[in-house]
Specification:
This is Putative phage repressor. By secondary structure, this protein is of the alpha+beta class. It folds into two domains: 82 residues, 434 Repressor (Amino-terminal Domain), CATH 1.10.260; 130 residues, Ribbon (Umud Fragment, subunit A), CATH 2.10.109. Helices cover 21% and strands 33% of the residues. The strands form three sheets. It has a nine-stranded mixed sheet with strand order 7-6-8-9-14-10-11-12-13. Strands 3-4-5 form a three-stranded antiparallel sheet, with no helix packed on it. A two-stranded antiparallel sheet has the order 1-2. Helix 2 crosses helix 3. The N and C termini lie far apart (50 Å).
């Protein structure tokens, strides 16, 4: 274990994956809860993600409090907790990289990103959706596919409700959101925070106002929102993909 004054450089592991393992192992639901448990400001978590380095003191504290295996915490390999057996045999390796095998051949673990599925409860502030979102679980996507669509570290999944975006989006659909894409591109679909609520709409930007457009226009006419201090409006990110269950 490192000196508490040092920091773990997670460039090779992915700081988001490490933080997700921390949340999973500790049962904490938000970054605000994690910051409180560590005795730091919430901004310190955001700063660690930006620097791609987690203070060794955090690792020491979490490993001691939850009996976590530091190797698992860093890489996801081996047992989660000290004294436990690994849940599965150590992955095979190809050219030094861990792989999974199926009938179609080997798959490298680092070719996948685990995207959180969240309950959209955004805070009206600069931190972004994920700081206050409740994480329900994680879903694996190929890294190369995600990179073609946007910033992988800023992506999350959320479920939409209502019929205002039918037929494009239906009640219960899951959408993939890139929180780094907040510049309005006419006709694209965005998640927008308005005061304490969150909506999914197509956007058009006009002087001093934002126009929220539903696809189900016969029922939901366009809504103009003034960009002033009386209403808190924030573009959380752009919808870049959707998934739908077929019954």
């Amino acid at each position: 274990m490192k000196n508490p004054e040092e920091a773990y450089n997670l460039e090779g592991f992915g700081v988001d994956d490490v933080l997700r393992r921390i949340m999973y192992a500790t049962g904490l639901r938000t970054q605000a809860q994690l910051a409180e448990r560590l005795g730091v400001r919430r901004a310190a978590i955001t700063d660690a993600k930006r620097r791609k380095a987690v203070p060794a003191e955090w690792f020491l504290k979490l490993c001691r409090m939850y009996q976590l295996n530091p190797v698992w915490l860093e890489s996801g390999l081996g047992p989660m907790r000290v004294g436990e057996e690994a849940p599965q045999p150590e992955p095979q390796r190809h050219k030094g990289r861990p792989v999974l095998n199926d009938s179609e051949g080997p798959f490298h673990l680092d070719e996948f990103a685990f995207i959180p599925k969240v309950t959209a409860v955004p805070r009206m502030g600069p931190e972004g959706l994920e700081t206050d979102a409740q994480v329900e679980g994680y879903f694996a996507f190929r890294q190369d596919w995600l990179r073609r669509k946007g910033n992988v570290s800023q992506m999350c999944l959320m479920r939409v409700a209502g019929d205002s975006m039918e037929p494009t989006l239906r009640d219960g659909d899951a959408v993939l959101l890139d929180q780094s894409q907040t510049e309005v591109v006419y006709g694209k679909i965005y998640v927008v925070g308005i005061d304490e609520g969150v909506v999914v709409k197509r956007l058009d930007k006009r002087p001093g106002k934002l126009v929220l457009v539903s696809d189900n226009r016969q029922v939901y006419p366009p809504l103009e929102v003034a960009l002033n201090e009386s209403v808190s409006v924030r573009i959380v990110g752009r919808v870049i993909w959707l998934a739908r269950e077929i019954f």
